[in-house]
Amino acid sequence: MRAQASVLHLDLDAFFAAVEQRDKPSLRGKPVVVGGIGGRGVVSTASYEARAYGVRSAMSTREARARCPHAAYLSGRFDAYRATSAAVLGLLRSCSPLVEPLSLDEAFVDLAQARLADLDVATVTAFAEELRASVREVTGGLTASVGVASSKFVAKVASDLEKPDGLVVVPPGTEQDLLRPMHVSVIPGVGPATVERLRRVGVHTIADLQQISEDELVRMLGKAHGHLLHDLAFARDDRQVEAQRETKSVSVEGTYEQDLTDRKLMESLLTRQAADVARRLRKNGMSGRTVTIKVRLYDFTTLNRSATLPSPTDDEAVVARLARRLLEDLDTSGGVRLLGVGVSGLADWVQEELFGHEDDDPEADAIAEPPAPDRAGAAVPPPADPPADPTGGYRPGMDVVHDEHGRGWVWGSGKGVVTVRFETAETPVGPVRSFAVGDPALTRWQHPPPDEMPTDP
DNA sequence: TCTGGGGTCCTAGGACCC
DNA sequence: TCTGGGGTCCTAGGACCC
């Protein structure tokens, strides 16, 4: 906690939905929901018009559709969000050299480093109003909510108070008056599990939290969380605004429309994800030593398996081989709804560039299997290929495919999976099977004449 | 057919080393 | 034949954030 209100928190209102409404005037004033639009999707952002129907972030899209069937459901255009976010960050950095982005739509600004005459409440209030007007200009009309206070914690709480399009400046010395009546869940880091633990000992508000001793909180919540919560309850927060933090891990994951049971398909999906991760590592000049796979089973049980290489890699073949090997130990017979691959233990350099090629080091690939025979003779690695179309060009409801057993309609495509509903002797709407995009078993396909189009179930 | 995707941080236990 | 003790690395899981 500083003596003056020198920390500003800015939060763009309903950001993804607002960008969509900005770019598509027909959506303005209407409910817009951005998120996963498949059968297992969840809401990322709902416009305020959609929130009026009870649609919320993290709600399943299925439930959102039930509450607000007439909303526009969009899967998101992250390039547009990134560009808009960059414009806002540029604006903030023109105000203060010390800006800490928290996500695409949120950032802290250290006003002590800004060119302000002083940090009086009146001065920072005028500055914040000007800033909000500037955000509107550089974003083409998006609104931001802003909080200003003597700490990160209170500034973030404050920015939420008058959403959307609001500004709250908390005068130094009044922080505890503001916080005490509030529910503990306003504290960042207090989620459902912590709320429940606190509820069981009768703690609901921050005033209640102030009554619990620090030792008791540490016993209940662990060392780090306990000490932090005790401090925050009394608005004690010295955390600095930190410019750019370094990336610690890179990962790709996917939830599939139907649970996966075919191990070969899982392997080919992991291989594809490993290639995506490795490509992103290379693009950012990074490499990492620890490969992790994530497997979510049919019942939502989530397993992680990891292994650490002797030296960092950005080679998709190495990541893929290790990922497939980690899968070997897992029982996936009940079905898998999510697969993911990640790399952590990042270094911003690749070891072989400093110490020669990794093949010179007998230990370099020790934990993984030896190089595949088809790779051994390649003197020059092929250039990084562009990301393959995850639908493989298969169009749901449009294409007919054959495998060795018969013919079927393409029912879904995406994330490297083609789902096919096969015809049987009894019914034209038979069993569903999934294949990897590019599976040679599915090379014969054709476009049916319009009168053969299947009707949607 | 409840429950995304990309991250961060913390905890706890075991291996290993001095 | 009695189990110290600290530090670091690795692995697995959980909570949380937007």
UniProtKB/TrEMBL annotation:
Boundaries of each UmuC domain copy? 7-191
**Annotated organism of origin:** Nocardioides bizhenqiangii
Checking Gene3D superfamilies in the record gives:
3.30.70.270, 3.40.1170.60, 5' to 3' exonuclease, C-terminal subdomain, DNA polymerase, Y-family, little finger domain
Q: What does this protein do?
A: Poorly processive, error-prone DNA polymerase involved in untargeted mutagenesis. Copies undamaged DNA at stalled replication forks, which arise in vivo from mismatched or misaligned primer ends. These misaligned primers can be extended by PolIV. Exhibits no 3'-5' exonuclease (proofreading) activity. May be involved in translesional synthesis, in conjunction with the beta clamp from PolIII.
Alphabetic keyword roster: Cytoplasm, DNA damage, DNA repair, DNA replication, DNA-binding, DNA-directed DNA polymerase, Magnesium, Metal-binding, Mutator protein, Nucleotidyltransferase, Transferase
Q: Source organism's superkingdom?
A: Bacteria
Family that this chain belongs to: Belongs to the DNA polymerase type-Y family.
* Cofactor(s) needed by this chain: Mg(2+)
Q: What is the lineage of its organism?
A: Bacteria, Bacillati, Actinomycetota, Actinomycetes, Propionibacteriales
Q: Region Disordered: start and end of each range?
A: 359-400, 431-457
Annotated coiled-coil segments of the chain: none
The cellular location(s) given in this protein's UniProt record come to: Cytoplasm
Q: What is this protein called?
A: DNA polymerase IV
Positions binding Mg(2+) in this chain are 11, 105
